[in-house]
Design goal:
Layout lengths: L2 H27 L10 H38 L14 H21 L26
Helix pairs in contact: 1-2, 2-3
GO molecular function: structural molecule activity
Protein name: CLD19 protein
Pfam family, one: PMP22_Claudin
């Protein structure tokens, strides 16, 4: 196969692996799971690490799809003996790839926003129980 197809294939495999590990790390970093640390700051940092993996996965997908689209564009406008109606064009897979890459980067960015602000790091707020009122026994 051509070099750009092999490169796109390798980038997509890397993207799939990064996305898989991003899912695992993000599930561990969610506040609703009991896996791992109980500290909310540590959980937030794990969730941010999952978000970074998702962003890297989206960038790899975007690079692979854009590399293939660049090659298609180059081949389309190149002078050749192939008639215009027999040349490759953008297909729906390219648009789906761009959409998937955009949503993956957006989701990773939202996970990266789950890090607590600096002034609240290390502080945990506990709900204080209300003092019980005196009961009258009759």
């Amino acid at each position: 196969l051509a070099v750009h197809i092999q490169t796109s294939r390798a980038l997509m495999v890397i993207s799939l692996l990064l996305g898989f590990f991003g899912i695992i790390v993000s599930v561990v970093g969610m506040k609703c799971t009991k896996v791992g640390e109980e500290d909310p700051v540590t959980k937030s940092r794990i969730a941010v690490a999952g978000g970074v993996l998702f962003i890297l996965s989206g960038v790899c997908t975007l690079a692979a799809v854009s590399l293939y689209a660049t090659q298609v564009t180059y081949e389309f406008f190149r002078e050749s003996t192939v008639p215009v109606n027999a040349r490759y064009e953008f297909g729906s897979a390219l648009f789906i790839g761009w959409g998937a890459a955009s949503l993956t980067v957006l989701g990773g960015s939202l996970l990266c926003c789950s890090c607590p602000p600096k002034e609240r790091r290390g502080q945990q707020y506990y709900r204080q129980s209300q003092p019980s009122t005196a009961r009258e026994y009759v």
